[in-house]
Amino acid sequence: MSEFDAEQKTIGGIPVDPRVQWAIDIMDTQDYDYQPWYEKIIMPGIFVSLVPLTVTISNFVRKVPTRTNMPLALASTPLSLGLCYKLQAFKNNIDAENRAHAKHYILTHPERFPEPKNPFFKDMILPYFPRRIQ
Questions:
Q1: Domain ranges of the chain
Q2: Mind listing the pLDDT tens digit for each residue in 44-98?
Q3: How much is the average pLDDT of 22-26?
Q4: Is residue 106 within 8 Å of residue 113, measured between CB atoms?
Q5: Overall average pLDDT of the 102-126 stretch
Q6: Of the candidates 89, 92, 111, 110, which has an alpha carbon nearest to the alpha carbon of residue 100?
Q7: Angle value at C-alpha 100, between 96 and 102, nearest 5 degrees
Q8: pTM tops 0.90, yes or no
Q9: Which residues contact 12 (CB under 8 A, 6 or more apart)?
Q10: 70-86: b or e for each residue (b if 16 or more CB lie within 10 Å)?
Q11: Is the pLDDT assigned to residue 1 strictly greater than 60?
């Protein structure tokens, strides 16, 4: 018997009950990154453009030339990009902790997670009753 059998499999030192093996299989991401596209592209773009846009609006409100203080704003864009990546890493860390807490709860309370039944497609279709107004 290998160490990866369902009877011997452990996660964090807690043995996996065969009753909740289905839930652990669903939660296993197999190291796939589920970060949406807008967090990879849009959020860094917003962070990078936030400082120059703020400086432009501030210059417009103060009625000074629009590009005044712009070199300082452009020099701070790498800092804002770094801040964006740090915040994304922080958020990903929190998400990983939440998944770990959920797995731990499932492993320690297997009686609360019964395996769902697989219904047949014909059982999910409700009968059609026409409503006709006469």
A1: 10-124
A2: 999 899 999 999 999 999 999 988 888 988 899 999 999 999 999 999 899 989 9
A3: 86
A4: yes
A5: 87
A6: 92
A7: 115
A8: no
A9: 100, 103, 104, 107
A10: eeebeebeeebeeebee
A11: no
